[in-house]
């Protein structure tokens, strides 16, 4: 792969912009030698403004999403892409959320440029359960586990019942909900169906992978191959 195409694919700009970047002397090898358009010392030896290049596709990121950010560039206001370096929104193939979180929901968000991986995680048959921690406005009634786990709960405007969901009460107004699927505002609508209101919602795990404790809200990092295996229970 030519250096200019590599930089363009990694989001450093169009091919013309990547060419100008190379001509500016910003792209070097680890020894500090300025690279030309035809030079390619290996991905691990290329630096842009002294920083290592991001990995090629397929790439998976994990983010601790804060409240106030949406997962779509089509929505107004701040998006999760604003929390990443600008080049990540320009990669080819592009980075996409692996199951969206709404603006007011926080916690674990995966982003990937691999369509097959994305489909594996979000498909109900994948076994990648999504666990949410919910803080509620009113005390639990005691029948939530039965209702959520029945496989018969049908939300307003939905054409079919929800898949059976897991439930664990943690306190009078606090619970964990485990989903096999990811419908629109699902956890919030589930609690609304039993007469409650969600005040705070955080996704804490996907499959076998938990939200990394070291990630503060708004922070992200690359997911390792070992973590991908854990995600699918391998």
Write up this protein.
By secondary structure, this protein is an alpha+beta fold. It has three domains: 3-52, Structural Genomics Hypothetical 15.5 Kd Protein In mrcA-pckA Intergenic Region, Chain A, CATH 3.10.290; 60-123 and 208-231, Alpha-Beta Plaits (2-Layer Sandwich); 129-206, 2-Layer Sandwich (Alpha-Beta Plaits), CATH 3.30.70. It contains six helices and twelve strands. The protein has helices at residues 3-9, 15-23, 115-122, 144-148, 186-193, 225-231, and strands spanning 27-29, 46-48, 51-52, 60-65, 96-97, 105-112, 130-136, 166-171, 174-179, 198-206, 209-210, 220-222. Strands 4, 5, 6, 7, 8, 9, 10, 11 and 12 form a nine-stranded mixed beta sheet that branches. The protein has a three-stranded antiparallel beta sheet with strand order 1-2-3. Helix 1 (3-9) crosses helix 2. The two termini are 33 Å apart.
Could you tell me how far the N terminus lies from the C terminus, measured between alpha carbons in angstroms? Answer: 33 Å
> How many structural domains does the protein architecture include?
3
Percentage of residues in DSSP E strands:
15-25%
Structural class: alpha+beta
In the CATH hierarchy, the third-tier topology of the largest domain is known as Alpha-Beta Plaits
What is the CATH level 1 assignment of the largest domain?
A: Alpha Beta
Total count of strands: 12
Summarize the structure.
With 234 residues, the chain is α+β, with helices and mostly antiparallel strands. Helices cover 19% and strands 24% of the residues. The chain has 3 domains: 3-52, Structural Genomics Hypothetical 15.5 Kd Protein In mrcA-pckA Intergenic Region, Chain A, CATH 3.10.290; 60-123 and 208-231, Pseudouridine synthase I, catalytic domain, N-terminal subdomain (Alpha-Beta Plaits); 129-206, 2-Layer Sandwich (Alpha-Beta Plaits), CATH 3.30.70.
């Amino acid at each position: 792969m030519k250096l200019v195409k590599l930089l363009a694919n990694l989001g450093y700009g169009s091919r013309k912009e990547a060419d100008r970047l190379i001509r500016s002397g910003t792209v070097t090898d680890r020894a500090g030698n300025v690279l030309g358009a035809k030079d390619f010392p290996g991905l691990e030896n290329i630096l842009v403004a002294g920083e290592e290049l991001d990995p090629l596709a397929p790439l998976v990121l994990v983010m601790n999403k804060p409240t106030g950010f949406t997962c779509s560039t089509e929505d107004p206001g701040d998006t999760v892409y604003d929390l990443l370096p600008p080049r990540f929104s320009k990669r080819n193939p592009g980075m996409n959320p692996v199951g969206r979180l709404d603006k007011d929901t926080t916690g674990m968000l995966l982003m990937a440029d691999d369509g097959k991986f994305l489909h594996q995680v979000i498909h109900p048959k994948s076994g990648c359960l999504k666990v949410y921690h919910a803080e509620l406005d009113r005390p639990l009634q005691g029948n939530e586990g039965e209702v959520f786990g029945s496989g018969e709960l049908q939300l307003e405007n939905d054409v079919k019942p929800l898949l059976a969901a897991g439930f664990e009460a943690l306190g009078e107004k606090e619970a964990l909900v485990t989903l096999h699927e990811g419908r629109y505002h699902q956890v919030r609508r589930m609690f609304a169906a039993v007469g409650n209101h969600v005040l705070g919602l955080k996704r804490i795990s996907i499959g076998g992978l938990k939200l990394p404790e070291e990630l503060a809200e708004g922070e992200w990092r690359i997911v390792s191959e070992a973590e991908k295996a854990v995600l699918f229970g391998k």
